[in-house]
């Protein structure tokens, strides 16, 4: 069973000619089949965690370990992490002009699977996955993320999640900027992947709204660069009622 | 990386494009002083690498370039003397090297597509450098309502200065693809003059990959209203190469269109690309619709781009006029996004660069040329990443 283990992770970022520590000792274990929600106020370091796990060069790991089934993730390049089974659905997916969605998806699937998918089954696979996400087939011929609406970008991220079948999926504020209909479609996509039982999900969000559609097994409150409280789904209900105030005050005084 | 991107929109009584040149256009090289390098039209060009084309010391050799014209039936291909009346109609040399070429060539090549002749096969002109120095003159003329595709290939090694004229009759449609795929030492300086007839369409595709120094001067003027010109360019400037494209579109009659799109990628130390885009809208050119754009993608440190769009408008009675220029480094966020989907770094870089050019390549509208360009871009990238 695939397991992502994060131990005492410390991460810094360079900003305004100064080094700032954003993550201050994160501990978390995500197993295949589990869904963990990480909730926290803006600026608490949630997205830094997501991008650090994926290997974004902007972030420097200054301490701690991250392993996937015992393999050292921090030693891997960005593409190696993806091929090892990590997937990051981005909050702000990047435009790649002149590269069509279909070319991108196939290149990516070829890299992840280690061989080019058979054309006939691949076309069908993509078409069906797009239908499930209510995506127009013409979408495949557009350039990656170019001119996409917020909802289209997020659907495209979840389309990749469905096609690439990672061991651990990190969803970075996938719910932000979505209307209720788009949120439902995107959540259904995530749930289809979860129901296979083969993916561990790390759902990073600011709002409890998405948790009505995607039920977490564990909820963690993130504040000032670390997890300050963990619990079951009921913790989300508490946050819904009380907000983050108790944690941000605590974080500031810590 | 160094780059300058300066743009201006000037409303002027007299064209500064004309006045800032160091001499008036002329067919006679004696009318141009030998440039010293600080002139507006020479300031980006390394004169010492022109091999004497600019100062009268480059003498034509017996083995200069070999020109082979392959034309479908119905096309008239001639070699003519200097006094042929069909020479020098589309434009006048605007700098000393073009005037030198006009003053020094011995025989000119004239390719004529008679009126109302619509070609289904391209005219292919192979210009192959044999290691010498040459001055050349080429005229391609389309009669009224004729349609043709011309592919000009430059290969081998040469020091070549040339004038190329495109004369389009009323309603004619001409697409010219000029590929500069020279060997590493070649020097190529040329002025391309297009005279676009009433309701005629001219499409120029300039593709520059090779050479030590390539400096091209595609220019368009209109002979009547309703003309359209599309100027597309693609360059891949490698280590040590100087590739300069200086465009001028002179909207000298009403109701004409022009659209210029040049894109370049640069890699390696002292790769230098220069793009000058001059568009004039003269006072009488009401109803003009024009746009010009230059984009550069800098792949490595040590490369330099100078990009100068310049739009001069002497009448407000126009449909549209715009220009854009941007030079950017390779976008690391694009690289991260692709790599985060398992795509190895080199493949990701290839995807991005291919994507950068793809939109432009698709506008060429000639499938076998498009395929060839994509293959050539791949080849350049292989050389870059390996």
From TrEMBL, chain A:
Claim: Nucleotide-binding is one of the keywords in the record: yes
GO molecular function: ATP binding; ATP hydrolysis activity
Keyword flag Nucleotide-binding: yes
Entry-linked Pfam families: ABC_tran (PF00005)
PANTHER family: ABC TRANSPORTER I FAMILY MEMBER 6, CHLOROPLASTIC
Keywords: ATP-binding, Nucleotide-binding
PROSITE patterns, per database record: ABC_TRANSPORTER_2
Residue span, ABC transporter domain: 4-249
Naturally occurring in which organism (per UniProt): Streptomyces griseoloalbus
SUPFAM superfamilies: P-loop containing nucleoside triphosphate hydrolases
Cross-referenced InterPro entries: AAA+_ATPase, ABC_transporter-like_ATP-bd, FeS-cluster_ATPase_SufC, P-loop_NTPase
Protein family: Belongs to the ABC transporter superfamily. Ycf16 family.
Protein's name in the database: Fe-S cluster assembly ATP-binding protein
